[in-house]
Design brief:
Length: 175
């Protein structure tokens, strides 16, 4: 994997660590709008389901709201953290496989997604807590800034990576 290739699953993992539902939702949204490498893999997978796509978008939107509620448990608790790592790995694996069509690339993407999710979960939590402690700006504003950062990282991950070999790939076949 090249530098940009490795950055994609890592960035999607970081976004997933910050907002657990965002990685797979971004992949589902990118299916018809994004680069052909994502379309070719995602278009033939379960993420192609319109019902699942809408569900992923709804859960990601719900998480953006729920994150601001005081009763929301910490993302660093065992359950939420393990879910973020697993979802980051799954999203990274899809991107890795989409680019190289190999098991090695999928495993590498998964590892980068898991690492990114850990960075996003811990880094996002501790940075936001520090900003809340050291500024007069309420946490909810830092939470919105974190939302924007996570969305930007997810958008980068699924929008970057057009094939560089100059050859166009065929569109995925409709079922």
């Amino acid at each position: 994997m090249g530098a940009i290739s490795a950055a994609r699953p890592l960035a999607l993992g970081v976004a997933t660590g910050m907002r657990s539902q965002l990685g797979l939702a971004a992949l589902a949204v990118a299916m018809r709008k994004g680069p052909r490498d994502v379309n070719m893999v995602v278009g033939r997978q379960v993420l192609a389901s319109p019902v699942l796509k809408q569900t992923l978008i709804a859960t990601a939107a719900g998480e953006l709201v729920a994150d601001k509620l005081p009763a929301t448990p910490s993302r660093l608790n065992r359950g939420p953290l393990l879910a973020r790592l697993a979802l980051g790995g799954a999203a990274g694996a899809v991107l890795g496989y989409a680019e190289k069509r190999s098991v090695v690339a999928a495993v590498t993407g998964a590892a980068l997604g898991v690492a990114g999710a850990g960075i996003g979960a811990y880094g996002g939590y501790h940075l936001r807590a520090a900003l809340d402690r050291h500024t007069d700006i309420p946490d909810r504003y830092w939470a919105v800034a974190e939302d924007a950062t996570a969305i930007g990282l997810a958008a980068f991950a699924v929008a970057t990576g057009a094939h560089t070999d100059g050859q166009a790939e065929p569109e995925p076949e409709e079922a």
